[in-house]
């Protein structure tokens, strides 16, 4: 039995022996997050990578990209993004939230499902940094690329039946202040099943080598990958039929917001009483007051009546305005006599 | 919900009452059938319960989120119909058979780790009403699937 387990684990985690495959590199000239995500998804859906691996290099104007099963309201400073000029997008792969800007390089490694190996791809980046700039980096347990425990790259992937891709960011000279501000959580106490990002210390490659540019890093990676770069001038229907529809989906509120797993916001009113708001598919579906003390009778304390204050919000799309409305009701309740009496009567 | 399978089961047997069919159905349908992509289906009349194999759950690692198909969704065999997230990877779920979803496992949505701890029992993913029983012929019995895993290992 012991032996069998050992064999199983080796089988699961070793990659297949290398066989000769063709390789290509694409560089997308486009810097619109939705178009680039659409190209990535189009390639995943329409190309066969079993005998031909592809590395796609791309970058974007400032944006926050949440994982497929994440909550954008929880993961970023959603109310401030428009004033900061930062787009919000949801990608198709798992994992946590990242910030992109033009001084961050994104890499997508497309392979057949059985050749998928995040570690091998990260090793390639690490080798490129070593060979071209003498920068030492290591791959940590969560398969992120780090320098002295500071992340320089965040990883995520999507695995299909025959095709898989692994994509990652590479912080070259990103605006760290904007990154921190854009990823700040302003939603407060929330209960959810959604994937929650793991906060990490980050750094730019330019902190190691002053003045480092994305172009230089790209050159190093291209050299390591060993192929010529094909520049994608425009991502249009003529070359990628159906790509517009994919882009429209990525850009839609339905994909960005309504795909968010159900969540509940809590606000303490008094020590045992709290207000809550339930959001499902981006809409308010429930709200009210509950107590953490089950022996407390909601009816006799007229708590049930107060829950009526939330009726106005039901069915509305969850937005900054609705959140403000909720906070105002919470504020009102904190000064409410019925609520105060509960404490006295206990 | 529990009534549905029994009713359908009776109708199913009436429709295909040739002795040969019953013989095979009793023999084959009593156990799980597997795909080469490590999904399983277990039949109760015309209702199939779908899940992933022990091999698949071990390869995935800790599942942290399960996105399952909604009730009434029409699913085609080998088409994407949901996703399981583990260690920053979203792995697409494919159905071994076509049909209409009649139930999804809400316990798994609530506690995705059930897929790791009980992939053949509490960690089932969804149930569907089969649209085309002939698709079952492509699937492997548990014995054949075990053999298949061994051939994968030697590659």
TrEMBL record, chain A:
GO terms for biological process: protein lipoylation. It comes from the Eukaryota. Pfam families: LplA-B_cat. This is BPL/LPL catalytic domain-containing protein. Gene3D superfamilies: Bira Bifunctional Protein, Domain 2. Pathway: Protein modification; protein lipoylation via exogenous pathway; protein N(6)-(lipoyl)lysine from lipoate: step 2/2. One of its GO terms (molecular function) is lipoyltransferase activity. Belongs to the LplA family. Residues 49-233 form the BPL/LPL catalytic domain. Signal peptide: none annotated. Coiled coil: none annotated. GO terms for cellular component: mitochondrion. It comes from Ceutorhynchus assimilis.
UniProtKB/TrEMBL annotation, chain B:
Keywords: Lipoyl, Mitochondrion, Transit peptide. CDD domains: GCS_H (cd06848). Binds 1 lipoyl cofactor covalently. Gene3D superfamilies: 2.40.50.100. The keyword Mitochondrion applies. GO terms for cellular component: glycine cleavage complex; mitochondrion. It is found in: Mitochondrion. One of its GO terms (biological process) is glycine decarboxylation via glycine cleavage system. Residues 47-129 form the Lipoyl-binding domain. Its cofactor is (R)-lipoate. The H protein shuttles the methylamine group of glycine from the P protein to the T protein. This is Glycine cleavage system H protein. It comes from Ceutorhynchus assimilis (cabbage seed weevil). The lineage of its organism: Eukaryota, Metazoa, Ecdysozoa, Arthropoda, Hexapoda.
């Amino acid at each position: 039995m012991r032996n069998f387990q050992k064999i199983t684990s080796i089988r699961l985690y070793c990659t297949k022996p290398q066989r000769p495959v063709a390789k290509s590199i694409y560089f997308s000239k486009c810097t619109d997050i939705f178009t680039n995500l659409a190209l990535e998804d189009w390639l995943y859906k329409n190309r066969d990578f079993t005998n031909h691996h592809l590395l796609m290099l791309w970058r974007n104007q400032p944006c926050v990209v949440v994982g497929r099963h994440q909550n954008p309201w929880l993961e970023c400073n959603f109310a401030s993004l428009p004033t900061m000029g930062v787009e919000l997008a949801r990608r198709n792969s798992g994992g946590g939230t990242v910030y992109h800007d033009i001084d961050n390089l994104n890499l997508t490694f497309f392979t057949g499902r059985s050749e998928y190996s995040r570690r091998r791809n990260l090793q390639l980046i690490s080798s490129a940094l070593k060979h071209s700039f003498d920068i030492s980096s290591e791959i940590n347990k969560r398969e992120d690329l780090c320098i002295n425990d500071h992340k320089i790259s965040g990883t995520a992937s999507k695995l299909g039946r025959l095709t898989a891709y692994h994509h990652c960011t590479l912080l070259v000279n990103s605006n760290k202040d904007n990154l921190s501000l854009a990823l700040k959580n302003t939603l407060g106490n929330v209960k959810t099943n959604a994937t929650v990002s793991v906060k990490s210390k980050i750094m730019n490659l330019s902190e190691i080598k002053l003045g480092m540019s994305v172009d230089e890093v790209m050159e190093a990676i291209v050299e390591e990958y060993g192929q010529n770069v094909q520049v994608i001038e425009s991502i249009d229907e003529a070359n990628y039929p159906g790509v517009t529809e994919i882009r429209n989906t990525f850009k839609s509120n339905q994909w960005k917001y309504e795909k968010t797993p159900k969540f509940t916001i809590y606000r303490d009113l008094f020590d045992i009483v709290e207000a809550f708001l339930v959001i499902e598919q981006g809409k308010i579906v429930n709200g009210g007051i509950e107590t953490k003390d089950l022996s407390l009778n909601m009816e006799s304390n007229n708590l049930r009546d107060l829950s009526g204050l939330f009726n106005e919000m039901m069915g509305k799309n969850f937005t900054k305005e609705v959140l403000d409305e909720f906070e105002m009701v919470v504020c009102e309740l904190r000064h409410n006599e019925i609520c105060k009496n509960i404490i006295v009567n206990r | 919900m529990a009534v549905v399978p029994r009713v359908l089961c009776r109708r199913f047997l009436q429709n295909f009452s040739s002795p040969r069919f019953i013989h095979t159905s009793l023999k084959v349908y009593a156990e799980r059938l597997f795909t080469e992509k490590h999904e399983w289906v277990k039949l109760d009349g015309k209702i199939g319960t779908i899940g992933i194999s022990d091999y698949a759950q071990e390869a995935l690692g800790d599942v942290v989120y399960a996105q399952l198909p909604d009730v009434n969704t029409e699913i085609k065999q080998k088409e994407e119909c949901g996703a399981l997230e583990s260690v920053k990877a979203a792995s697409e779920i494919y159905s071994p058979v076509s049909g209409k979803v009649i139930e999804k496992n809400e316990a798994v949505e609530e506690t995705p780790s059930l897929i790791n701890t009980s992939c053949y029992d509490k960690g089932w993913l969804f149930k569907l009403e089969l649209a085309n029983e002939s698709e079952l012929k492509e699937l492997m019995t548990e014995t054949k699937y075990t053999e298949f895993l061994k051939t994968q290992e030697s590659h």
